[in-house]
């Protein structure tokens, strides 16, 4: 082998460079998954959750933690939990909590909520003044087993939140309320009874000039719910647990595909944050 050939053989081409080297950017660039209406929502949720957890390594705003542990058949479990700090250290921060993933197989609420967290990472100005707590998979054992009910047989969306009888998953969340002291809570679920996104509001503490709002082009209906007409005991119990805070229950039409429910939920939640902050800045009936 000639000297020239040896030099050519031993030479190493430089490693290709990429525009994205930060782990946060790499993780977020992979998300959200393309809104393919024929795709697997469960797989999309797994990708979103895994990549958002990876994104926490490069973020000063997003943290992935676990809720209070609980025992179920098969061992010790904890609920995946994401914390987003849009107002770190600010004493006047508005604290909101979000819950979904009541069924281990109906994961459209989880998909939409995780896509919203991803949206906040790309548009942090939306969450300025807020500290947000996300529980995207309340039924973690059902998610692992691919079942509607929990491993202990509970149907979480209709289960009681009352201490002493609540399933362990709900007790884990309830333990967070005193620590987080949320001003408001949001639930997401899927319903066969609606054809447009339905947002039910409870004790919304802002002037109606701010919320609810007519969102031109967004298929959403707003309906205030009074305590005496609340059809779901579990929602009344959650409202009692979060005493003094307001609540929004979002129902996603079961006939909607990802290309419909993901952008609609993201748009509605973004507008709620924007409008509530605007109302607070003007001192509107808070």
Query: What share of the residues lie within helices?
Result: 25-40%
Question: Which second-level CATH architecture applies?
Answer: 3-Layer(aba) Sandwich
CATH evolutionary superfamily: Zn peptidases
Please mark out the parts with pLDDT under 50 across 5 or more consecutive residues, or reply none: 1-35
Number of contiguous helices: 9
CATH first level: Alpha Beta
The succession of helices and strands, N to C, reads HHHEEEEEHEHHHEEEHEH
Strand content: 15-25%
Average pLDDT across residues?
A: 79
Helix-strand blueprint:
Elements: H1 3-10, H2 23-29, H3 41-55, E1 62-66, E2 70-72, E3 75-77, E4 80-85, E5 94-99, H4 108-122, E6 130-135, H5 140-145, H6 168-174, H7 176-180, E7 184-191, E8 197-202, E9 220-224, H8 233-241, E10 246-253, H9 258-281
Descriptive notes:
Helix 2 (23-29) packs antiparallel against helix 3 and helix 4 (108-122) crosses helix 9. This protein has a single domain, classed as Zn peptidases (Aminopeptidase, 3-Layer(aba) Sandwich), CATH 3.40.630.10. It is globular and about 50 Å long. It contains nine helices and ten strands. The strands form two sheets. The chain has an eight-stranded mixed sheet, covered by helices on one side. Helix 4 links the parallel strand 5 (94-99) and strand 6 (130-135). It is of the alpha/beta class. The chain starts with a helix and ends in a 5-residue tail after the last helix. The longest helix has 24 residues, at 258-281.
């Amino acid at each position: 082998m000639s000297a020239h050939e040896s030099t050519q053989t031993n030479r190493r081409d430089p490693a290709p460079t990429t525009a994205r080297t930060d782990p946060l950017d790499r993780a977020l660039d992979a998300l959200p998954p393309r809104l393919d209406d024929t795709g697997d929502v469960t797989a999309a949720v797994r990708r979103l959750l895994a990549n958002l957890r990876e994104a926490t390594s490069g973020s000063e705003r997003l943290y992935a933690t676990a809720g209070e542990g609980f025992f179920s058949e098969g061992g010790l479990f904890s609920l995946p939990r994401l914390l987003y700090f849009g107002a770190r250290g600010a004493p006047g921060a508005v604290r909101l909590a979000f819950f979904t993933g009541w069924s281990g197989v109906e994961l459209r609420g989880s998909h939409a909520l995780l896509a919203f967290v991803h949206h906040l990472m790309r548009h942090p100005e939306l969450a300025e003044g807020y500290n947000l707590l996300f529980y995207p998979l309340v039924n973690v054992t059902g998610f692992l087993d691919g079942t509607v009910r929990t491993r202990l047989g509970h149907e979480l969306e209709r289960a009681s939140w009352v201490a002493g009888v609540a399933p362990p998953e709900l007790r884990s969340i309830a333990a967070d309320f005193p620590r987080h002291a949320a001003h408001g809570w949001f639930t997401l679920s899927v319903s066969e009874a609606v054809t447009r996104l339905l947002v039910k509001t409870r004790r919304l503490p802002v002037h109606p000039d701010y919320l609810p709002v007519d969102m031109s082009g967004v298929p959403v209906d707003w309906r205030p719910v009074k305590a005496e007409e609340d059809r779901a005991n579990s929602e009344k119990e959650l409202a009692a647990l979060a005493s003094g805070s307001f609540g929004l229950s979002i129902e996603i039409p079961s006939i909607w595909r990802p290309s419909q429910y993901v952008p609609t939920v993201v748009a509605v939640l973004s507008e709620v944050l924007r409008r509530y902050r605007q109302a607070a800045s003007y001192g509107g009936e808070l």
